User: What shape does this take?
Amino acid sequence: MTAALLVGFFGVAGALLRFAVDTLFAHRAASRSHWPWATFLVNVTGSLIIGLSLGISGRLGLGPELQTGLATGLAGGLTTFSSWTTATVRLVSEQRFGAAFLNITANLLAGLAAAGVGIVLAG
Amino acid sequence: MGSYWINALKAPGWKAWLAVAVGGLAGTELRYGLGLLFPEHPGSLPWTTLAINVGGSFILALLTTLWIARPRTSFWLRAGLGPGILGSFTTFSAVVFALDRQIRDGQHSLWVLYLGLSLILGLGAAAAGWKAGKAAADFTGGAQ
Assistant: This one.
């Protein structure tokens, strides 16, 4: 019950943060040479958070509910898979194959690195 | 998608923020609930997350092309469904976290399989949704 409440609270926070970043980048997204920077930014940040969440709640003795809230709620709500794939398909539909390829690889590599850094920092 | 359909000239109103909050709550709890119903175990393929991400990719891409054809759809509705529900329902961090763990544990065939399925099925679902949305918009004469 506590976990579900924390997941909901942090999930809303993650979604609002992601929408705020989307809004900040909206003027760039309208240009012809757009690239999904907002999604990249939230995906890398959320990957860092999920890595950190593993160690931090254990170290501070805050219990598994908070870890679930941070990992499933905050990191899960902040990051998004569907915008990443949809943006890639959009770039392909505009024949911007290099930008599409870069969108796939940059999110994956930076996301993996960020999660690794989070685990090391918190561990 | 860097939600490119956000009006660049106008800050979103309170209705859009509220819709994102409500949608974010629903999407996150739905993902959490599915994870409780179909738990994932370290060492095996994270099917639940994969299914969530593939399904969410199809629906978001479909809605995106529908909304390109119908730009007058209320902004709060698009915000609540897109960045709200689908953005929160699907997740990137859990994929990366699971891959990191599989790589560390030396489960090389598992992480290659998970990464390959996420990319092929996720991008395939988005491409299919993109085409389906376009077809639906054309069929209903949705250009405006």
Summary: The radius of gyration of chain A is 16 Å. Chain A has a mean pLDDT of 93.
